[in-house]
UniProtKB/TrEMBL annotation:
UniProt-recorded name of the protein: Putative tetratricopeptide-like helical domain-containing protein
NCBIfam families to which the protein is assigned, alphabetical: PPR
Keyword Repeat part of the UniProt annotation: yes
InterPro entries according to UniProt: PPR_At4g14850-like_plant (IPR046960), PPR_rpt (IPR002885), TPR-like_helical_dom_sf (IPR011990)
Organism: Rosa chinensis
Molecular function (Gene Ontology), one example: RNA binding
Keyword Repeat included in the entry's annotation: yes
A biological process from GO: plant organ development
UniProt keyword annotations, A-Z: Repeat
Renumbered ranges of PPR repeats: 52-86, 178-212, 258-292, 359-393
Length: 487
């Protein structure tokens, strides 16, 4: 192997200064000598030459200018540290290679979602929404747009660049959402002055069971108008269970109350199982000329489900229909759950069947209904229908599925679903999933397997897991293992 520009080093490439090597790489970039550039890069790696960020940026630029953005992207993805030059080199490479989708096709390999997301974030760094749009198109072609990291990065890119319509479209099309994607939307709405949309997104995030961290609270409380701040405080106090403080903030300015503040207060009462106060709040809301929204009804129906308050639940459904929320996915999902917990499975199925394009939330509600009633076969059939409809299952889906298998004695099916949930769907088992498997094996009397499973778990069983194992040991008269569970 020969490197013409490096002969002056007498083959001692390790003694070459980074600046000199950078000039050589720059020469290869200008003259489009990709093969020589790749040879030099390979030689540097073989000889363990310290590739600082300065040299790596030149390699990025060389690959991009030679039309091989696939190589550039792989290198970019491997960089432990990046600076503005790195981001600019990568994005410029994409913009200069307008046929970069063919480059990936010819390479026979697509970029990882993490690398692709990094380049999308680079568009924010250099303020280039046009290149971001090109990357969005490429993501759609490569089938990466539905991936969580790519979708979140696209939504974040559009929102930070002030294009909230595009951000919202990307966000709503994401099959699953995490705290990062929700925070991007909340922050984007807040910065664009749409405070009501920001807080509605905040409430939707809470209703979806996404944990609130300091960044989300910061975004919610960054809203710079009194009404929005007041609503955020009501919601914050309600979520922490301090209903007295929430009510004090709520009463400060009656003129500024809107559906967001009412919904936050109602949801707080629901979480505290104070259903009567929640319904009084609804009456006050309507008496004050404020119309309830889908989140208001969702919270109240949830309260009826938790307390099996069928009569009040039926009355609420009539109100849901009156206000045209009966086709809302989230409201309908909670109704499915409510009727299931009240023992009216036919009503649950009927409500579900009337949902147009049910989301994973609706499917999970129906799965849960079948699971808690021990209808394992119906749960398995529902899961097959869900997957067949193109809806991607999430962690909650498998909790319901495993519960259904446990209650119906479908041990082998349950174990199969547990082991392929990560392999097929990339869902890492949590303590709840492990506990469901303990319950599955315990109910079937396979206590030795259950004990071995507990010992092999990377996490400790939660209270449900230990109680399930203890109960199974008690029923089977296994005092030794029962003592282990009790301890």
């Amino acid at each position: 192997m020969s490197f013409q520009p490096l002969r002056l080093f007498g083959g001692q490439i390790l003694k070459a200064e980074s600046a000199t090597l950078a000039q050589v790489i720059q020469t290869y970039a200008k003259t489009k000598q990709l093969n020589k550039g790749k040879e030099l890069h390979a030689h540097l790696l073989r000889t363990h030459y310290p590739l600082c960020i300065f040299l790596t940026n030149h390699l990025l630029n060389m690959y991009s200018k030679c039309g091989h953005v696939d190589y550039a992207l792989k290198l970019f993805d491997q960089m432990p540290h990046r600076n503005l030059v790195s981001w600019t080199a990568m994005v410029t490479g994409f913009s200069q290679n307008m046929r970069f989708s063919e480059s990936f096709k010819n390479a026979g390999e697509s970029p990882t979602q993490f690398a692709f997301a990094s380049v999308i974030r680079a568009c924010v760094v250099i303020g280039s929404v046009e290149i971001g749009r090109q990357l969005h198109s490429l993501a759609l072609k490569l089938g990466l747009a539905c991936e969580l990291f790519v979708g979140s990065s696209l939504a974040d890119m559009y929102s930070k660049c002030g294009f909230m319509v595009e951000a919202c479209k990307v966000f709503e099309e994401m099959p699953s959402k995490d705290a990062v994607s929700w925070t991007s939307m909340i922050d984007g709405y807040a910065k664009s002055g749409d405070f009501e949309a920001a807080l509605l997104s905040y409430q939707r995030m809470i209703n979806d069971g996404i944990g609130v961290d300091k960044y989300v609270v910061s975004s919610a409380l960054r809203l710079e108008v009194e009404v929005a701040v007041g609503n955020a405080l009501v919601d914050m106090y309600s979520k922490s269970g301090d209903m007295e403080s929430a009510l004090n903030v709520f009463r400060v300015d009656p003129e500024s109350r809107n559906i967001v503040s009412y919904s936050s207060l109602i949801n707080g009462y629901v979480e505290m199982d104070e259903i009567e106060k929640a319904f009084v709040c609804l009456l006050t809301c309507r008496g004050g000329g404020v119309e309830p929204n889908q989140f208001t009804f969702s919270s109240l129906v949830k309260a009826c489900a938790n307390q099996a308050a069928l009569e009040q639940g039926i009355q609420l459904q009539a109100q849901v229909i009156k206000f045209n929320f009966d086709r809302d996915n989230f409201v309908s999902s909670v109704l499915v759950d409510m009727y299931g917990k009240c023992g009216l499975l036919d009503h649950s199925i009927q409500v579900f069947d009337e949902i147009v394009n049910p989301t994973e939330v609706a499917w999970n509600s129906l799965l849960s209904v079948f699971a808690v009633h021990g209808l394992g076969n119906d749960a398995l059939k529902t899961f097959s229908r869900m997957v067949g409809a193109g809806v991607k299952p999430n962690a909650i889906t498998f909790i319901s599925l495993l519960t259904g298998c446990s209650h119906s004695g479908s041990v082998e099916e349950g174990l199969t679903y547990f082991y392929f949930m990560e392999k097929t769907y990339g869902i890492v088992p949590r303590a709840g999933h492990y506990s469901c498997v303990i319950d599955l094996l315990g109910r079937a009397g396979r206590l030795e397997e259950a004990e071995e499973f507990i010992n092999s778990m990377p996490v400790q069983p939660n209270a449900f897991g230990w109680c399930s194992f203890l109960g199974a040991c008690t029923i089977r008269g296994d005092k030794e293992r029962g003592k282990l569970a009790a301890e």
